[in-house]
Amino acid sequence: MERGGGPAGVSVIALDYIRYGYIMGDMNKPTAPLPLTPAVFHILLALFGKERHGYDIMQQVKADSGDAVKMGPGTLYGSLDRMIEAGLVAQGDTQDPRRIYYRLTALGRSTLRAETERLSRVALVARRQLGSA
Amino acid sequence: MTRSVRQKESRSLRLYAWLLDLYPPAFVQRHRAEMLQNFADLEDAEPSKAKLWLLIGKDLTMSLILQFFGSRLGRYVISVLVAWLLIFTVGYFRRDSTPGYPLLHVFGGFLPGMLAMYIATRLLGMPQNKSQIIYVIGILGAVAGFAWILLFLIGYFPGGGTPAVRNPALQVFGGFLIGMLSMFIATHVYGMPQNSSQA
User: Fold this and answer.
1) What does the pLDDT look like over B60-90, one tens digit per residue?
2) What is the mean pLDDT of chain A?
3) Is the C or the N end of chain A the one with fewer CB within 10 Å?
4) What one-character-per-residue DSSP string does B146-168 give?
5) B160-196: pLDDT as tens digits
């Protein structure tokens, strides 16, 4: 995930994070730039293995996060638009006149795996630090 | 009671539908139906209206801010705020530790003025032709004139000798009008935020 060093590189990364929630850069890489925002991570997690519509995604995110992440429609569809543009998510095949279903793409799945690995490593370091304190 | 009947009767849903117009038109066009459906589902699942609106209020605020500051108009607002910061900084070094109350008063009015004009433009639409633009500027001028007259009538300047421009209330109000005018011009030069991918 090299994005160039120096102040210019840092400012580009910072701008990406602020503007796109860190998911818009380097589209040709096997995963989107990490770390992901909590909203993006939870949406990817909710869509893993199953197509879901918007309300279903919100409920799944709430359940997966133990009520810690409560997402409203504005945040959800704003994130979904950016994730579709970044190639992480696509519209699903389920036909429903009232709902649009969403599914993960291959890039979305690999990004979710990479972010999960990253979080595991961070958690391991944190546990080690806390254990030694 | 069927869902469609319940939706028609829900004031909350009607209010939410109205608030959705604050989002960029392209975003609303893509997601309006789904967002209304999701709101109805949330309303069904949440027994407390207060909790529902707390979630929706937070969601609206955060997502609108993201949408707005990612647009060209949003970048204009950021540059205006940076310009104000520079003015204050220059004032800090040139005129002691306070950059001068007039500036603070004007700034205090400027921000809500910009916000008011943005919300009004988003909800009521942009003036499309010259006569509508003149109408809006005329309204702004009339409001300014009315405020001046009102301030004098209520005896805001009992001494009579204080120059009106030094009055704090007028400085705030002047800032408000300048803020509205600034946003009015900016929306015509840069346009309103059009879609969420700009955000």
Assistant:
1) 998 888 877 777 777 777 887 787 777 777 7
2) 82
3) C
4) HHHHHHHHTTS-TTS-S-GGG-H
5) 545 555 667 777 777 888 888 888 888 777 777 665 4
Helix (H, G, I), strand (E, B) or coil at B46: coil
Looking at this predicted complex, what is its ipTM?
0.70
Substitution target in B4, B21, B31, B60 with the highest count of A β-carbons within 10 Å is B31
Q: How far is B114 from chain A (nearest CA, A)?
A: 22
Q: What CA–CA distance (Å, rounded) separates B142 from B50?
A: 39
| A19: its two tokens | 């503007």
Residues of A in contact with B33 (CB under 8 A): 98
Q: How would you class B8 by CB atoms within 10 Å of its CB: exposed for 0-12, middle for 13-18, buried for 19 or more?
A: exposed
For residue A76, list chain B residues with Cβ-Cβ distance below 8 A: 38
Instruction: Write out the two tokens for A81.
Output: 């638009």
